[in-house]
Design brief:
The protein is an alpha/beta fold and 400 residues long. It has 18 helices and 13 strands. It starts with 25 loop residues before the first strand and ends with a helix.
Amino acid sequence: MRRAWPAWGPTLPSPLTPPPSPPAPEVAIVAGESSGDQLGALLMQALQEAGYACRFQGIAGPRMQGRGAISWYDMETLAVRGYLEAMSSLRRILAIRRDLRRRLLAAPPRLYIGIDAPDFNLGLEAALKRAGIPTVQFVGPTVWGWRRGRLRRVRQAVSHMLLIFPFEEELYRRVGIPASYVGHPLAYALPQRDQPRARERLGLDPEAEYIALLPGSRASELKALAAVYVETARRVLADRPGVRFLVPLVTRATREMFVRAIGAADAHELPLRILYGHAHDALQAADAALVASGTATLEALLLGCPHVITYRVPWLTYQIMKRQAYLPYVGMPNILAGRFLVPEHLQDAARPEVLADALLALLRDQPVRAAMQSEFARLRAELTRDTPRLIAEALAPYLT
């Protein structure tokens, strides 16, 4: 009878059995509004395509959740703007931040990534950094525009900054904050302007004249601007009877607020189409736009849509912001250009007659529109980099 050979030494795994994979890095990630959700989704995509099988948890919108992020809270809770608006939600927001800090300190992630929302993220990042958790802030606070004193707070809170404007990198490095300019994600992701194709996608008349109306993505913005936009559209229509309007709105609440504003003004005669999202298509399809100050002004620039900028906030909020500002303009196209490239009508000047006159002047003056679009193209080129690759390279030291 043949005897089995004794098993000497440790049992070796079969060469056909792969070694166990290391656990996926836990990454905490927090976005505070729709634009942050877009940025967060691109960041997640960049890491996934670079081969990092991270598990993302925190506060995420629908785009980030579509990439696999688990959201512990509704992102819209953080989507407030201005001092008075934030005060009304302060207790709830602080409770969320305390709970996040408790959860993350109890089970430390490999990395914390804050997407914009600096007033929420910086305080949380400071606590996590003190506990030895690396922190990355994607989109720096606008210290170049106002509240420059926040740079000291940023240095205490952030291990690394991911910056989206070229002039920011030197400012942060000068005060000892590690920073990487990754280009603007929207400049990388948004298509070049193609008005005929956009009109085809939306089923619009290829020969008609269209104005896009973008009153904002937050309920507080619609409360301040919806009635103004409706009356502005009515005045423009009286001067140009063939004009039509596109109104992209991202939430049910904002759509309902705009519809109520139409009813309150008895403006059902307006040739106006409310879109469920599709802001980028609307900006490409339109001949001109009226845009609430914010990310949408940059989107209008990148998509080559001539526009007028407007905004309203509560009086006290405006007074505080005005006294802390360093620049004479608020719209991103003007900040990037260093001059009033796009008309701005804010606060008391944000009246229907003023806004209608500004839009009509833009529609009548083709050379002005063409010059604006030419400058938009130049600025877009400055903002365009291989953003996913640069993001992955900047975050690699924290994930390997």
